[in-house]
Write a structure and sequence with these properties.
heterodimer, A: about 110 residues, mainly beta, 7-stranded mixed sheet, B: about 110 residues, 6-stranded mixed sheet
């Protein structure tokens, strides 16, 4: 399996609090992605990175920010969590035009 | 803007019968196409990809996919379905540009009946 770790794996948080999810890779891949998975919507791209400090918005970026200060770490922050952000979050990494490798996911519940 | 469509939410097939899971795409440049599978409470596993070359691509677990440029399709196929193939299948497309954005479809649930 590709060396990609998401933390935490599960989190329950209260509405209005900030939350940061971490994606850590040991593969030195250039590209990193954050997705959310919801029933009926499949995987939707939140933000992605094409290099250190190079990031861009995906399909559903409102309410989320990201940072990538070094190759191995890509952080996703929910600035003020809402119930609509209850979801399963997946990080993925890739190099070049090849396939992406996925982490095991983070299940986030906002109450 | 690039996009992927999986027109069927669910596909039902009897064990031993051939299966097809449909995918169509839209991308401005050359398409780089992928299929993934997700089993319950698991992450996504890569099945196969089309980057260039032969239009028929073979992948893991006996799956294959046919790239059709004129129809902008990349349908997933298997000659003989197994009950263990029951899972959620995702098609994805990469735009191949500088940012290498990767977009997924909404997924198709494959149910194989014994």
């Amino acid at each position: 399996d590709a060396g990609i770790t998401q933390s935490p794996r599960h989190k329950v948080t209260e509405t209005g609090t900030p939350v940061t999810l971490r994606c850590h890779q040991t593969e030195n891949h250039r590209y990193m992605y954050w997705y959310r998975q919801d029933p009926g919507h499949g995987l939707r791209l939140i933000h992605y990175s094409y290099g250190v400090k190079d990031t861009d918005k995906g399909e559903v970026s409102d309410g989320y920010s990201v940072s990538r200060s070094k190759t191995e770490d890509f952080l996703l922050t929910l600035e003020s969590a809402t119930s609509s952000q209850t979801s399963v979050y997946f990080c993925a990494i890739s190099e070049g035009l090849g396939e992406a490798f996925f982490g095991q996911g983070t299940r986030l519940t906002v109450v | 803007a690039q996009s992927v469509a999986q027109p069927e939410d669910q596909v039902n097939v009897a064990e031993g019968n051939p299966l097809t899971v449909k995918c169509t795409y839209s991308v401005s440049g050359n398409p780089y196409l992928f299929w993934y599978v997700q089993y319950p409470n698991r992450g996504l596993q890569f099945l196969l990809k089309y980057i260039t070359g032969d239009n028929l691509v073979k992948g893991s677990y006996g799956f294959e996919a046919e790239f059709n440029k004129s129809q902008t399709s990349f349908h997933l196929k298997k000659p003989s379905a197994l009950v263990s193939d029951s899972a959620l299948y995702f098609c994805a497309v990469r735009d191949g540009g500088a940012t290498n954005k990767l977009i997924f479809g909404t997924g198709t649930l494959l149910a194989v009946q014994p």
